[in-house]
Amino acid sequence: MVKVSIIMPVYNASRFLKMSCESVAKQTLKDVELICVDDGSTDDSLEVLNALNEKYDFIKIFSQKNKGSGYARNTGMNKAQGEYIAFLDADDIFIDDDALEKMYFYGSKNDADIVCGNLKRIRQNGDIETNYDFKNTKFAYFNKKDVVLPIEYGIPFAFYRNIFKREFIEEHGIIFPDLIRGQDPIFLANALANTDELYVLRTDLYGYNHSVGGGVNIKVNTYEKKIAYIQHFKNTFDILKDNDFEGPFAAYKREFMDYILFQNNLYDEDIRKAIHEVFSDGINKYFSKEDYGYSYLEMIVNDEEDNDFDTFAEIKEYLIKETLLNDNFIDVNYLREYVKLLEGNEDNIPLLEKTSINKVKEIETEVNEDYEFLSENYESLNDDFNLVKTKYKAERAEKEETIKNEITEEINEKTIEEPQEEENRINKFLKTIKHFHKE
Q1: Which fold has domain 4-213?
Q2: In this predicted model, what pLDDT tens digit does every residue of 32-45 receive, in sequence order?
Q3: Which residues contact 154 (CB under 8 A, 6 or more apart)?
Q4: pTM for the complete prediction?
Q5: Which of the 8 DSSP states describes residue 365?
Q6: Where are the domains positioned within the chain?
Q7: Are 14 and 121 in contact (CB under 8 A)?
């Protein structure tokens, strides 16, 4: 009988598959199956899996068109035969060799719906990151065998450090949602909301290869991914709020605000558009005026305009332009008005910051437009310049020749009475030519 089914979505991860599969082979629990779902890889992942399948008989391979990791995991769960289900991404590993064995027998003995272990970060070669503080994360670290309430888990991150009873998953219809980003927290939030207790123990099950995927902003880099990621927050809010997970709900709202107020996201029009669309029915179900970032979020959702911000923007534009022109003094009246508006909007600093960056962008746009015009018309402008230059040279040469001829004629017509007079005439001629060249 299969005790644990391990679900592994695979997409273009050929260089990590040997490491991840070997970590399964090292587990002391041998009654396992590793269900690998190739999600339309375009590299040689499938070939590597087939080669590993010849070495390890616990590997089962399935293929599908590219539909995302959540869909691949759902496919794997449908194929699973184990009493419990574990998850392993293709670039990650299991750390403690006896982790699955400890977790399975602890769960089986207590008929547990969910058994929780711990997670650590690893480098791409599989070494553990020693500088990562795995004990102080946004989700709980378990330092002893215990039974805790689901609300004590923390925010629903790192679902893969847990194993789930397959019967429990199927009974409650817990699957990964059809989102291209943010599926994992929704899956785990649903699981936590449908059980009464978590069986936890101190074992390092999961090694997360953080450096491969990178941070959220690297993964969430298109409008489609951004709106899916914003949608996952709302879906997770609903689960946590409806099941009275007050602490995790508050913490996840903070996670959301940290994401949208992150410096690189604060001025991202795609994120603003996604928020406006996802929360089109309002934010008051989830946020109150006392919540961190409420005014900024309300402005996005309601498309509110504020004259104070318009005035601030105009003043900021003036100050920026005056600052760029180093030889100008800044009008003190503008500075006073700027400070006054700033002091009157302490709760709306993100909005004021946005007006600042928008003005910088507008100035940058103006400069770029001028530069593009000059670049596009360079040849024409250069031709015009050369034409004017040639015409000027011709006119100058003609004028020089006229002056020389006039002086020569005058010299020839008159008798030179004294050498000094002749010398004066020559000097006058030279000065005239020199003065003309200066012009």
Answers
A1: Spore Coat Polysaccharide Biosynthesis Protein SpsA; Chain A (3.90.550)
A2: 999 999 999 999 99
A3: 137, 138, 139, 140, 248, 251
A4: 0.71
A5: H
A6: 4-213, 235-302, 307-364, 378-438
A7: no
